TrEMBL record:
InterPro entries: SLC13A/DASS. This is Protein I'm not dead yet isoform X2. One of its GO terms (molecular function) is citrate transmembrane transporter activity. Its main location: membrane. GO terms for cellular component: plasma membrane. The chain crosses the membrane at residues 38-59, 79-108, 143-161, 181-202, 270-291, 340-367. The keyword DNA damage does not apply. Belongs to the SLC13A/DASS transporter (TC 2.A.47) family. NADC subfamily. Keywords: Membrane, Transmembrane, Transmembrane helix. The lineage of its organism: Eukaryota, Metazoa, Ecdysozoa, Arthropoda, Hexapoda.
Amino acid sequence: MKVALAVMTEFNEAGIVKMYSDEEPYERGSKPYPSRPAVGIYLTVCYASTLGGMISPLQDPNEALIGIFNKNLKGKVGAGSFLVLLIAPMILSMIVLSLWISCMFLGLAGGKVKQELAEGAGNRDGFKQAVADKGEKMGPWTIHTKLSLILILVTFLLMMTRKPGFMDGWDTISKKTTNGPSVTIIGMSILFFGIPANYMFCKYYMCRQPKKEGSVPSLLGWKAVNSNTPWGHIFMLAAGFSCVFSGQKAGFFDWLADSAKKSKMSKGTALMYGSALGALMTILAPATTLAKLGVPIMFGAGKNVAVPFATALHNQFMLPTSTPSNTIIAGWGNVRPFQFLLGGLVPTILMFVFILGFTMALGGTAFSGY
């Protein structure tokens, strides 16, 4: 996200692409809305995260689904199961997304945006100069920057070793509790707020004499976090979590599963029913929450409903509520819901077709016991 924001800033300063729209802000003093090309880049970052998670066994919802499938299917579901099933839908979706985003936001279909981008493309020297000026302004890496990079790399390492799949990770240290991916992020956040925490740390460990004795800023101050956090989008994500939890406690998922079971659907109808439910619910609520709370109950309707329901949870293109990465990027970029809908409408429809088709064709190959 920060990389995309930095690139757009450089483009804006160089006059290649306008970062912000000419529209007036929704409220006086509020953050301006991004331009159409900027929206396209923000959505590309969102969708890249979704596409990468489709085949990753280390990232939810796949990680959660592997455990759930192993409990409910007779065969063994491993790290490569989702790779076998979803690699083709992922590639096809990449093609669709590239064309659709280019047409709707980057001027491929012509119009004013294409003209503006063509004019800006001729200003390559201005872009290079803007990058050089930015680098000179930022100066050499500070100790804060170096510590931040180290903490990010440590976080990646901890995420990879939490539950690698081919061996026990640190998630198995405690048999009574589950250490989810958020444990690592929470730990990193605490360190970012606490390091360096005091004058002694800077003076004696970093060998840099402070200009003024006393406390020093942490790597990440609360004021900066509070002013840059898209609280409205995060509350919207929290509402999605609450809806799934309430649906579980109110028996909504049980009612869906019982209704499907009593109707005695054919296999084809069950596949359509499960896929449609999964795709629709993922528009409104986070996919990982649906995987953990909804999929185990949907197995009560039979595997022909539960498996397509689970695979359809990767259809995360329509709204920011589908996954936290969408929420954070849309909030930070001030992308409005209708722009997310515009960018995700066609990819959502085609992804539904791709996932349903490959689940029907390769479901038994990918998931032993299906």
